[in-house]
Amino acid sequence: MSFVLIHGAGFGADCWDELIPHLSAEALAVDLPGRGTRAGVPLGTVTLSDCADAVREDVEARGLREVVLVGHSFAGVTVPRVLDLIPERIRQVVLVSAVVPPDGTRVLDQIDPGVRDLVEQSITAGVYQQTRAGAATMLCNDMDEATAASALDRLADDSAALLSEAVDLSGYRRDIPRTYVHLTRDQCYVEELQQRSIALLRAEVIDLDTGHMAMISAPGKLAAVLNTVHG
Q: Which segments constitute the AB hydrolase-1 domain (predicted)?
């Protein structure tokens, strides 16, 4: 089995750089449209279907089967679309503090109204841009200064579709085993929201004592969880 790693909002495939050396099997980190190897795609045009297509393209190009599909944060709304596209290639799903709102709603519908207003004001022409200061507060609470700087240097603009497009969770109805990695010090996707996602997924739950960017702040710990799931 191979690992296929899908990043969340505001990052690219390089957010997994610290984690990959700790994994026990081959790993493919996918760049979703608009960043990294797909930086030429205009972010304002990107949809959730485009994100799922990018994962499918990379998996098929590498000829991967028996995949452990790992989705972090906003990848929780891309993963089910991937499951519908290539179910025969996916053996296991692992969701790391993943956003899983009720089917047919928007991610924006699930956050505090005051925060939602600020986020919506940060969207221009279909592009969402996080500030470095805001990201430091939400994402780096368990990091030392150097690690936080390294993480923040990888921030990227993102498609607002990850926040404002209605989600399609039909892929989660497939009989593919799934595990939810619950991050107990997460200040971005907070405890209440993680518990809502867990309830919707009915997944096995593994607790990890880290903040939101566990693959950067505690790559060895997260890899140990993924390696155990991989078997």
A: 3-224
